[in-house]
UniProtKB/TrEMBL annotation:
Entries under SUPFAM superfamilies matching the protein: Thiamin diphosphate-binding fold (THDP-binding), TK C-terminal domain-like
Pfam families registered for this protein in UniProt: PDH_E1_M (PF17831), Transketolase_C_1 (PF22613), Transketolase_N (PF00456)
Gene source species: Streptomyces nondiastaticus
UniProt domain Pyruvate dehydrogenase E1 component middle: residue ranges: 487-710
Domain Transketolase-like C-terminal, first and last residues per copy: 726-859
Record flagged with keyword Oxidoreductase: yes
UniProt keyword terms in alphabetical order: Oxidoreductase, Pyruvate, Thiamine pyrophosphate
Protein name: Pyruvate dehydrogenase E1 component
Catalytic function, reaction form: N(6)-[(R)-lipoyl]-L-lysyl-[protein] + pyruvate + H(+) = N(6)-[(R)-S(8)-acetyldihydrolipoyl]-L-lysyl-[protein] + CO2
Phylogenetic lineage: Bacteria, Bacillati, Actinomycetota, Actinomycetes, Kitasatosporales
Entry keyword tRNA processing: no
GO molecular function terms noted in the UniProt entry: pyruvate dehydrogenase (acetyl-transferring) activity
Length: 893
């Protein structure tokens, strides 16, 4: 049966004739010849404009024949010398660091990929000349450098005069403040690196969304990014990471032809072959083609050209295709006899393959298998890159084959352990010098420490380097911040929340959405807000933004929305403002990162807010938040439907009681758990000032908001400082007798309401006075305290804010939140009073809010009993009172 049997056939005899022709081709030409004919026919059909599904896999050959390579635009001899100097200094830098301090580092990755980078730097990668000039554009290209290749980038910057020998010698020695980070870390070297990539898998994901965000800026009329290209350099082993391929379909679907992946296929990962029994190049080709990408394979060097021309039977191409990668790695280290027997002799004496190999000398065999890869020949790399940048309508991946550890000697090249090998011996450096033909005398290699080498500041090589980079718009990679501060928005939206909600009950999630909706209308900064939502906008009450702001789609809206006759219809637009990413927190955070760093990447400050189901933020994508901090991102991250007990009925998988603990580990995250709408207004306004004002800081704000509706009170006078610092007294005990036991209830988020109820129970039922404090940020209180501790070690007299705020407050302190106890416990060491906390430790569960809170012991009644127990430990109430309270409130087992 055939799927096509469902369709009527107007001429069955014609189909029969084609089948007979195919059978005849197989009978007289053989399977290889027939496959060749069919591929030729499919190529012709594609070029004729016929709408046929593409082949997912092509022969194991270069996509671009040597005869079709464009003329090389540079001075090959000069560029070879430059690449040789760079190779040398990269190896020397890592070796010297290990000789001195055993600091590690990677040599084999850059050694295999040197020409992949050098060809780009000389002829393709645009710099940022003109960034900040409205008439000049100047964003340049965005380069996602493979993390383990960083020594080569430093070595090139040294040749350019951007780094000194002293700085190279401080590779991986950052404590003094002037060293070079191990990998691309913008936070550690912000004038050079733009994108952190060494947490493998995040680079390719981020690169796709960066290319997409470039289009977003252009389509919204904020920045002309038409001349910017995103280049992502990846390892074939890195493609095992799920994040590496998670967004391939997005790039294909949205036809991001401003994006190029370059995958260095040296067939090895950290411990051994990437696909020992298979072919990683063919696997990746099928994966990318299926996702709608243009695929360019650059596999073989020119030494193979003559053999392919003699391969009239197609046996060589077939043999290369069938050899698994681990075996081919063995070929790269084998002697000529082994190659004759195991490769060319695989089909027996007298076979076409055997005959083809018989005419090859030993040196030719070694050149073929040890050196002749397309990735080591600038002409072939250039041809692949040229084809990539000229392709329209789809992103391009260049699959380039190299030898891992190339030029580092037989002890490194294609060896399983080469990723862990951190230095060369003096003998190996001499061999490398001879291979690269560098003018370094033996006397310079006689010492204990291998020297750096430089052709001279005024040498032809240095002049060529600077001329080429000047022609391409300046140095790269480079990070440059020229964005101007944003004007403060109108105070009116903030003041509206300061007044409270009157008699209306609203959740803090809705308060935040209302605030941002008004801020998006601001004449000066409204268009710079970038709402990012992972398919939960309706959950968060954001559908009111659909028709006014629109959802971004590069295709616009090509259909009639089903709710088009409703006021809040689903409106997609090419200039839409909302990035509604579907069910992908990783993709949404990659979006957020691109927007949060646009102030540096494009010289355009954007104000992203990423709102998500609280549980699925930090827990799922904490690694990306760390990369966001490394990339110095700015914006607002909103954990909506927060708390372990506030999400009714959702249960273990949805109940977030720990994201603030995870967020506290990220030094760039300014975390708040606001209880009231006015707290949100104060925090957001301060965030805009700190991140987008004249003294902009490289931080981002994390706010948790709740879906529990409550009356929102007006802001107490003088509360702003305490809100921002993390603690203020919200409601004192009313009319308590002087002799009444007294305590302090500290709470954050929705738990403030439980504390207020507990305050009433304590007063009405037990004659206990309790002051209620709102603690919008346990984490900021702790950070302030740690800073004061550090100052005290230097002899400075600084007292933590939390200590000052609670100083002299009578009675013990009881802290409560909808988070695990470790969240408020962060501040316990700096509280002079006796400390007790209650929280939601453990897994969440499905039930009503009331039942869940009783289960965890955080409802108002449980807080009341905990407060009485704290007083009983001090002898201020009788132990029987605690037991009586537990019985009265039904808390006994």
């Amino acid at each position: 049966m055939s799927q096509l049997d469902q369709l009527p056939d107007n001429d069955p005899s014609e189909v029969a004739e084609w089948r007979e022709s195919l059978d005849s081709a197989v009978r007289f030409g053989g399977a290889d010849r027939t496959t060749y004919l069919l591929r030729r026919l499919l190529e012709h059909a594609e070029r004729s404009g016929l709408d046929l599904p593409p082949l997912l896999e092509t022969p194991y050959l270069n996509t671009i024949p040597t005869s079709a390579e464009p003329e090389y635009p540079g001075d090959e001899e000069m560029e070879a010398r430059i690449t040789a100097w760079t190779r040398w200094n990269a190896a020397a830098m890592v070796t010297r660091g290990n000789q001195r301090a055993g600091l590690g580092g990677h040599m084999a990755t850059y050694a295999s990929a040197a020409w992949l980078y050098e060809t780009g730097f000389q002829h393709f990668f645009r710099g940022k000349a003109g960034l900040g000039d409205p008439a000049g554009g100047g964003s340049g290209d965005q380069l996602y450098i493979q993390g383990h290749a960083s020594p080569g980038i430093y070595a090139r910057a040294f040749l350019e005069g951007r780094l000194t020998e002293g700085q190279l010698d401080r590779f991986r020695q950052e404590a003094a403040g002037d060293g070079l980070p191990s990998y691309p870390h913008p936070r550690r070297l912000p004038w050079l690196w733009e994108f952190p990539t060494v947490s493998m898998g995040l680079g390719p994901l981020s690169a796709i969304y960066q290319a997409r965000f470039n289009r977003y800026l252009e389509h919204r009329g904020i920045k002309d990014t038409s001349q910017s290209r995103v280049w992502a350099f990846l390892g074939d082993g890195e493609m095992d990471e799920p994040e590496s391929t998670a967004a391939l379909a997005l790039a294909g679907r949205e036809r991001l032809d401003n994006l190029t992946f370059v995958i260095n296929c040296n067939l090895q990962r950290l411990d051994g072959p990437v696909r020992p029994n298979f072919k990683i190049v063919q696997e990746l080709e099928a994966q990318f083609r299926a996702a709608g990408w243009n695929v360019i394979k650059a596999l073989w060097g020119t030494a193979w050209d003559k053999l392919f021309a003699q391969d009239t039977e197609g046996t060589l191409a077939r043999r290369l295709r069938e050899v698994p990668d681990a075996q081919f790695q063995t070929y790269a280290t084998a002697d000529p006899a082994y190659l004759r027997t195991h490769f060319f002799g695989a089909e027996g004496p007298g076979s076409p393959l055997h005959t083809l190999g018989a005419g090859l000398g030993d040196d030719q065999l070694l050149e073929l298998f040890r050196a002749s890869r397309a990735g080591h020949e600038p002409r072939k790399v250039h041809a692949a890159y040229r084809a990539a940048v000229e392709h329209r309508g789809a992103p391009t991946v260049v699959l380039v084959q190299t030898v891992k550890g190339y030029t580092l000697g037989p002890g490194f090249e294609s060896r399983n352990a080469n990723h862990q090998m951190k230095k060369l011996t003096g003998k190996e450096f001499r061999a490398m010098r001879d291979l690269l033909d560098l003018p370094i005398p033996d006397s310079a290699l006689d010492g204990d420490m291998v020297p750096y080498a430089h052709p001279g500041e005024n040498s032809p090589e240095a002049r060529y380097l600077h001329e080429r980079r000047a022609a391409l718009g300046g140095p790269a990679p480079a990070r440059k911040v020229v964005a101007k501060p944003l004007p403060e928005p109108s105070a009116k939206p903030f003041e509206a929340l300061h007044k409270g909600s009157g008699s209306q009950e609203i959740a803090t999630t809705m308060a935040f959405v209302r605030l941002v909706k008004e801020l998006m209308r601001d004449e000066e900064t409204g268009r710079r807000w970038v709402p990012v939502v992972p398919d939960e906008a309706r959950t968060f009450g954001m559908e009111s933004l659909f028709p006014s702001a629109g959802l971004y789609s590069p295709a616009g809206q090509t259909y009639d929305p089903v709710d088009r006759d409703q006021l809040l219809y689903y409106k997609e637009a090419k200039d839409g403002q909302i990035l509604n990413e579907g069910i992908t927190e990783a993709g949404s955070l990659a979006d957020f990162t691109a927007a949060a760093t646009s102030y540096a990447t494009h010289g355009e400050s954007m104000i992203p807010f990423y709102i998500f189901y609280s549980m699925f933020g930090w827990q799922r994508t904490a690694d990306q938040f760390w990369a966001l901090a490394d990339q110095l991102g700015r914006g607002f991250v909103i954990g909506a439907t927060a708390g372990r007990t506030t999400m009714t009925g959702e249960g273990l998988q949805h109940a977030d009681g720990h994201s603030h603990l995870i967020a506290s580990t990220n030094p760039a995250a300014i975390s708040y758990d606001p209880a009231f709408a006015y707290e949100i207004a104060v925090i957001v306004r301060d965030g805009l000032r700190r991140m987008y004002g004249p003294d902009a800081e490289d931080v981002f704000y994390y706010l948790t908001v709740y879906n529990e509706t409550k009356i929102q009170p007006p802001m107490p006078e003088g509360a702003e400082e305490g809100i921002l610092k993390g603690l203020y007294r919200f409601k004192e005990a009313a009319d308590a007798p002087a002799e009444a036991p007294r305590l302090q209830l500290l709470a954050s988020g929705t738990a403030v309401h439980w504390a207020l109820d507990a305050q009433r129970f304590l007063a009405d039922d037990w004659d206990v006075a309790a002051d209620v404090w709102s603690a919008p940020s346990w984490t900021e209180l702790r950070r302030d305290a740690l800073s004061c501790d550090a100052a005290q070690l230097k002899g400075e007299d600084q007292i933590p804010y939390v200590t000052q705020a609670l100083h002299g407050a009578p009675g013990p302190v009881v802290a409560v939140s909808d988070w695990m106890r470790a969240v408020p416990d962060q501040i316990a060491p700096w509280v002079e009073q006796d400390w007790t906390s209650v929280g939601t430790d453990g897994f969440g569960l499905s039930d009503t809010r009331e039942a869940a809170r009783r289960h965890f012991g955080v409802d108002a009644e449980s807080v009341t009993v905990a407060a009485l127990a704290a007083l009983a430990r001090r002898g201020e109430v009788k132990p029987e009172t605690v037991r009586e309270a537990a019985r009265r409130y039904g808390l006994e087992d």
